Amino acid sequence: MIELLDIRKAFNQNRPNEYWALHGIDLAIEAGKVTAFRGPSGSGKTTLLTIVGCLSRPTSGRVRFKGEDISALPERFLTDIRRQSFGFVFQQFNLIKGLSALENVILPAFPTGRPRAELVARAGELFARLQLAHRAQARVEWLSGGEQQRVAIARALINDPEVIIADEPTANLDTALSMEFMAILEGFTAAGKTVLLTSHDPLVVESSAVHRVVGMRDGRLIGD
Amino acid sequence: MSPWLEKQFHLIDFTLASLARRKTRNLGLLVVYTLLVFVLASLTLYSNALRSEAKHVLAGSPEVILQRMVAGRHDLIPPGYLDKIGRIRGVQKKEGRLWGYYYDPVLNANYTFMARPASEVADGMIMVGEALARERGLAKNNTISFRSYSGKLFTFEVAAVLSPDSELLSADLVLLSEDDFRRFFEYPDGHYTDIALSVANPQEVRNVAAKLTAALPDSRPILREEVQRTYQSVFDWREGILLTVLAGAILAFAILAWEKASGLSAEEKREIGILKAIGWETGDVIRMKVWEGLLISLTAFLGGFLAAYVHVFHFGAAVFAPVLKGWSVLYPKFALVPAVDGLQVATLFFFTVFPYTAAILVPIWRAAITDPDAVMR
């Protein structure tokens, strides 16, 4: 489903502080499976996820999504693909403070121009599935860490994407909430979604919900 | 509803929610912005209304007034001048006028005394302006005494108080008979203050003036259009003075608006990053911020303009009237006829709404084109 061919990524290229985060990554990711990237901080896991999720472009190399080369597409098309095909769960959740959980969840669908009633109904289903219906109208800063993450998950699902990308999803959660997240993860694969995540957490990478673990160090793959 | 329209509603929804989240800051800006529009709109509306009022009032005045000059000063028209003018083609009517100023120590105010034919005001009677009547507590059939410049006391009976409709012109006016006028000021017989001429065809006014100058070289014709132009200049000048005084406030607002519009907080930049990461395009972010700028500036413009309209046309521009009307002891009380000049509204709109909306675009564009992966780092 996703193919990475000789992906390299440099930050501050041609400046004194030039830094290469990825050094030629070749990888094929299967659809409908959970793939976890494991590695120490600075190993390039998050950078790789941003490239796969169309949040940034590689400095060189190609990204193929469902057979189509998307690495050289203009920003507008990349945004379209990102909105329709990828849902993100960020480490810090990145919810917008001051807005309710419901408003946060429907935000990614605003550019699609779908009617508000339809968005609210879809968000309602997601809240029910994530057992968060009673908190839909609460402002996100009033929610607990676990609730905030579930809001972030609902937001990632509002446009019904094929791929979910989660960056260190359990980094801010205790064991019970991490287990809860893994249960939700199993629900994703049951629904046929592809999941890519980064984690140091043994609870995640050793979980039966994860189908494949890819190791990384210093911007290179170190074997599955 | 089309998806495009639906999307705009979503953007406006989000914008309103964003504005509400930073209530204090945005309300503060809105209040200052509205106040600025209110002040500028009051100024332009009031000046414009005064200009149209002056134009309207002067429309009834004679086309040409002839004054005699001695050593560059206005002097009396001696006997025979009216005959010397003779018959100039285009002049419908010529009339010697008698008027002068009288200082009333009771009010410390100057009145304008003007003679009218005996058919209008009988000897021993006067007609007074509304402001004067108000200040001196006069009503019809009251008597009032004035001590003339020669020290003699004259007593008049008020025949009527002039209609409030004409108060702009008649606030300090005293109309009396020609004989009373000459006696009161000891005005020599046959002399006049000036001569008023009516010219029916506006194209002919300048020709008539040229002929008058040729016939009476020691006189100067004053055209109504020149008087109108002078009034326009006086009000323009006063408006300019006020604008200069307000320049500091306008500048302060410009700095505030620029700071607010151009200085995106770290929180706002983070939010833009999140929106881009979850699928908003650069264009969506810019459109959302343009809506924000438009909502603030349009609300301020409409609020400020409506408040200015009410202030000027219902409360007589209480804040600016003393400066814009000019100085006087006897202020005429008059309701301005609502006169709104479309071009002025457009200019005000352009100079208040446009710069603010434009000022927010550059920083937003700079923030909106940042890579969405910033939120992952």
Tell me what the structure shows.
- The complex is a heterodimer of chains A (224) and B (377).
- By secondary structure, chain A is of the alpha/beta class.
- Chain A has a domain at 2-94 and 161-222: P-loop containing nucleotide triphosphate hydrolases (Rossmann fold).
- Chain A has helices at residues 45-52, 75-85, 101-106, 116-129, 145-157, 175-190, 202-205; strands spanning 2-11, 19-29, 34-38, 60-65, 68-69, 86-89, 163-167, 194-198, 212-217, 220-221.
- In chain A, the strands form two sheets. Chain A has a six-stranded mixed beta sheet with strand order 6-7-8-3-9-10, with helices on both faces. Chain A has a four-stranded antiparallel beta sheet with strand order 2-1-4-5, covered by helices on one side.
- In chain A, a hairpin with a 2-residue loop joins strand 4 (60-65) and strand 5 (68-69).
- The longest helix of chain A has 16 residues, at 175-190.
- In chain B, a hairpin with a 4-residue loop joins strand 4 (99-104) and strand 5 (109-116).
- The chains are: A alpha/beta (224), B alpha+beta (377).
- The interface between A and B is medium-sized, with 33 and 36 residues.
Protein traits:
heterodimer, A: 224 residues, alpha/beta, Rossmann fold, six-stranded mixed sheet, four-stranded antiparallel sheet, 7 helices, 25% strand, B: 377 residues, alpha+beta, Barwin-like endoglucanases, five-stranded antiparallel sheet, 12 helices, elongated
End-to-end CA span of chain A: 18 Å
- Percent of sequence in beta strands of chain A: 25-35%
What is the radius of gyration of chain A? 17 Å
Report helical residue fraction of chain B: 40-55%
Q: Strand sequence of the main sheet of chain A, in spatial order? A: 6-7-8-3-9-10
Describe the strand arrangement of the main beta sheet of chain B, using strand numbers: 4-5-9-6-8-7
Low-confidence stretches of chain B: none
Q: Roughly what is the average pLDDT of chain B, rounded to an integer?
A: 83
Largest sheet of chain A: 6 strands, mixed
CATH topology of the domain at 2-94 and 161-222 in chain A: Rossmann fold
**Structure summary, number of beta strands of chain B:** 11
Low-confidence stretches of chain A: none
Kindly provide the name of the CATH class of the domain at 2-94 and 161-222 in chain A: Alpha Beta
Order of helices and strands of chain A: EEEHEEHEHHHEHEHEE
Judging from the principal axes of the Cα atoms, what is the shape of chain A?
Answer: globular
Question: What pair of chains forms the biggest interface?
Answer: A-B, 33 and 36 residues
Give the name of the CATH superfamily of the domain at 2-94 and 161-222 in chain A.
P-loop containing nucleotide triphosphate hydrolases
The assembly state of the depicted protein chains is heterodimer
